[in-house]
Amino acid sequence: MTCSGFLGIDMGSISTNLVVVDGCNEVLYDFYARAEGNPIASVQSALARVADELPRDLQIVGVGVTGSGRSLVGSVVGADIVKNEITAHARAAIHLHPDVQTIVEIGGQDSKLTIVRDGAVVDFAMNLVCAAGTGSFLDSQAKRLNISIDELSAKAVLSLTPTTIAGRCTVFAESDMIHKQQLGHNQADILMGLCHALVRNFLSNVCRGKELRPPVLLQGGISANLGIRRAFREALGCEIVIPRYHMVMGAYGAALLAAEAAAPETRFRGFEIADHEVVTEAFSCGDCPNCCEIIDIVDNGRLVGRGGGRCGKWEGATYGTVADHAEVSPDSKPSQNKMSSGGVPSA
Known about the structure:
Blueprint: E1 3-11, E2 15-22, E3 27-34, H1 39-53, E4 58-66, H2 70-77, E5 81-82, H3 85-96, E6 102-106, E7 111-117, E8 120-127, H4 135-144, H5 149-156, H6 170-183, H7 187-205, E9 216-219, H8 226-236, E10 240-241, H9 249-260, E11 278-284, E12 293-299, E13 302-307, H10 322-325, E14 334-339
Parallel strand pairs: 1-4, 4-5, 6-9, 9-10
Antiparallel strand pairs: 1-2, 2-3, 6-7, 7-8, 11-12, 11-14, 12-13
Helix pairs in contact: 3-9, 5-7, 6-7, 7-8
């Protein structure tokens, strides 16, 4: 007997997350891995792993995609729905914790606040400007100190007297950390001070003017950091709820949204695309002064998606072979900068 499942993919700047749910919205499989700067290859690798571990009688009947790379990955896998991160994370949070009122989601390159009242999103804010309030800053400091991010997490919570670290800017924060090291502050106090600085940055920049009511959910990759959990708890003066699937909530939400929007027939192109040669090719559209850089997504010689335009003209094209589309706009000449999976120049 064949069982139906729904696949959610969260293609972020740092990680690739996949979740498969059944018809009752229960998680059958979840996967988290670093993207390592190659989103297409990363999602292909993740799909190959999922295919090996899922039951053979499970049929994917809907696919949802979210994250900063959602348009690219959505074309590669054949997504049925493509949603922004606010929508996806909120959907999963409300499903697991219907009483949630505040959602904090901090990723590798950005951070988000979502305000929920009576099970509906009423407000949100994002920080896309500075890395001081994101996970990548913790990663960079861990590397500078020659420790893993897990060691940073474990050492930070040992601090009894956290050092005050300037957190409004990554450059100032790093300089301040070095200064405190030179003065003799122990590493645990400096690391906990760094966690406090990141949380202060988030609360002062992203949460300005917002009412943060408990229950507060902390999710995203940074939610695994014990120091960040402690810093939020101390700053807000309330317990912080860590959802069961806190590392993959975006993918979980995308899967739930795909289940809700289930169509008679899915656009999913199958797990076999993990073995396909998927490349991207760029060209400039000269049809207006915007001169958009358009990205072609080519799977085994077939054009499966386009992105990068501002007006939507190219995205609406009927896909076929690359040769078919070379004649769409005579004034738009494809560049010679052919890219392989994830944007690595190919021969």
